[in-house]
Amino acid sequence: DIALVSSLQHILYIHIYIVFQTDLPLYYKPWMDIARNVPEFISSHSLRLRIHNMPLLETHLLRTHCELRLAHLALSMMTVGYVWQEGERETIKVLPRNLSVPFCEVSQRLGLPPILIYTDSVLANWKKRDPDGNLELLLTLPGGESVRGFFLVTLLVELAAVPGLKSILDVINGIHYNDVAMVTKALDVVSQAIDMVLILHVTNTYLLFQTIWKDNPLMPEGLVYEEVQEKPMEFSGGSAAQSSTLHCFDELLGVQHEGSSGAFLRRMRDYMLPSHKHFIENISSCPSLRSFVLQQADEGLTHTFEQCVARLVDFRNYHINTVTRYITIPASHAKQLRANKQGLPEELDAIRRAPTALDERGTGGSGIMTFLKTVRDKTKDTFISQCSKGNQDLPDPSMTEIQKAASEFTTE
């Protein structure tokens, strides 16, 4: 399928070959001067003032895909910083025209929404620091080395998935030619890629940013983009659900996400580059891999398919445990401290300043634990043999266990 090959080539080009520009034409220096210093300007509470004093620039001088991507990254970093400069204490309702107008124009040309998304913070936010290939961020947010590590390790996860993405075409071609050996070999590569994604994910700490103005009680009406639209606009924040990688593997293996979780995942595809979204849709339109495995009844093929599903379930089990450890338990602990007004003065001050809107919801606006468990369980349903499904059943942390852990939680 020409469309399938074309969209995959674009994804692999973005993942492997493209070296993003580190700067824009001189005309856009006012953008880059601010975007490169967002953490410092937030710390000094001067970012909003600097953006108000920024000139309104035309966007027609941005001519290449790389220039548009860097512009989108810079404008999105400034937008997030502008909205949340004062945290939850002083949210704003209007994004000024000298930021909103060019941001929406660049977004329209790329087919992306005007908000900081995964495509910006991970896929377009790196450069080679030295000839050895060590990487560095182009732009960052407050959080120092934790933020740097989070974005760069997430990028490495994307790179680890590349062999699996490339093998998807071999799987589809193998089904077309009724070649069991070809499909089995390609699926083995997919399985190894998912395994590498899990290994790298384990090394990463879980870090979330308050970038969202959809389903957020702090901004119930959304955000007005001045001189773009009078009515407030709502957008979900950056989320790993906006990565095309796991969507591709889900579609290939036939994981059927339904209900509110399925609707959320489909909505997240609108936050991807159009070529990524089209590739996922093209995989979905191809003959079913799971049906092919069932029809062939080949022991080796079935085992390899089950192994792929098992790796995906392992990944989602780990994701649930990570969220429990780094979000749910600390959030429960914070609620206890707020209610009882107990703790050291510096601890209570940190609790007061910490954002509360993400206690129960993810950066994309999903009910986080319900969503993750539903996605994991739908992945389990893809197993062909009930025995394989049973081997993946791990107990989920109960609310009693979470509350107990929260009471024993110590803040470092």
Describe it.
This protein is mostly helical and 412 residues long. The chain has a single domain, classed as Methane Monooxygenase Hydroxylase, Chain G, domain 1. The protein contains 19 helices and 4 strands. The strands form 2 sheets. Strands 1-4 form a two-stranded parallel sheet. Strands 2-3 form a two-stranded antiparallel sheet. A hairpin with a 6-residue loop joins strand 2 and strand 3. The longest helix has 42 residues. It starts with a helix and ends with a helix. The C terminus is likely disordered. InterPro entries: Indolamine_dOase, Trp/Indoleamine_2_3_dOase-like. Belongs to the indoleamine 2,3-dioxygenase family.
CATH architecture: Up-down Bundle
The spatial strand order of the largest sheet comes to: 1-4
| CATH class categorisation | Mainly Alpha
Tell the overall outline.
Answer: globular
User: What does the main sheet amount to?
Assistant: 2 strands, parallel
Helical fraction equals: 55-70%
Averaging pLDDT over every residue, what do you get?
Answer: 84
- Strand fraction equals under 5%
Q: Stretches where pLDDT falls below 50 for ≥5 residues?
A: 203-209, 405-412
Summing up helix and strand content along with how strands pair, one would put the structural category as mainly alpha
What's the number of extended β-strand segments?
Answer: 4
Number of domains: 1
Radius of gyration: 22 Å
Measured distance between first and last alpha carbons: 53 Å
What's the CATH topology label? Answer: Methane Monooxygenase Hydroxylase, Chain G, domain 1
Instruction: State the order of secondary-structure elements, H for helix, E for strand.
Output: HHHHHEHHEEHHHEHHHHHHHHH
The number of helical elements comes to: 19
Organism: Sinocyclocheilus grahami
GO molecular function: heme binding; indoleamine 2,3-dioxygenase activity; L-tryptophan 2,3-dioxygenase activity; metal ion binding
Binding site for heme b: 319
Keywords: Heme, Iron, Metal-binding, Tryptophan catabolism
